[in-house]
Amino acid sequence: QKEVEQDPGPLSVPEGAIVSLNCTYSNSAFQYFMWYRQYSRKGPELLMYTYSSGNKEDGRFTAQVDKSSKYISLFIRDSQPSDSATYLCAIFDEGATNKLIFGTGTLLAVQP
Amino acid sequence: DGGITQSPKYLFRKEGQNVTLSCEQNLNHDAMYWYRQDPGQGLRLIYYSQIVNDFQKGDIAEGYSVSREKKESFPLTVTSAQKNPTAFYLCASRDRGLYGANVLTFGAGSRLTVL
Fold first, then answer.
1. d(Cα B81, Cα B11) in Å, to the nearest integer?
2. Is any Cβ of chain A less than 8 angstroms from the Cβ of B27?
3. Mind listing the pLDDT tens digit for each residue in A19-42?
4. Which of A24, A37, B4, B31 could connect to B107 by a Cys-Cys bridge, CB 3.0–4.6 Å?
């Protein structure tokens, strides 16, 4: 079983739609959860991060962590064409490796 | 402006040649990372370094080498032993952000194509 699993999409939605992106993970000890956004041919940029369980909101974006289900989500409200990108979930493994484990990424296209 | 600079942005290589990708950061971060990105496979860790003069293999280190002689620099050499080197390479550095979260900052990437 992969440590982090993410539906690769692609996902196509009309402008203004609510988008839900999801990942599951296997290790219940993980505490730090992040979402990165990557535009085509660019490096990923940090969008949201969450410590432990709960929700975090930033403008049109909401990150949600459910540790009991080992499930993380990113919601985008009022989606815009400029939101079209690949969204990568990531979990920081604070064990011996101190490394960030990425999902495969979901390609999102918001149609005007 | 603080950030990570990767060069070159695009690189073409003939089979059997070694190439070195540059990564420089002025963020004063201790840890640096190299990832490889292929379509449908996400980011896979090649090598990482937590401190100067020390580095560890990641998940796909075979055919790659690194050095960390300076805090600011973490070059990656793709050797002729790497069987499938065509990919997008990303360098990152790590800072301990708010609430103890460990955040990676990425460069713009280097796209290597083997002809």
1. 18
2. no
3. 999 999 998 888 889 999 999 989
4. B4
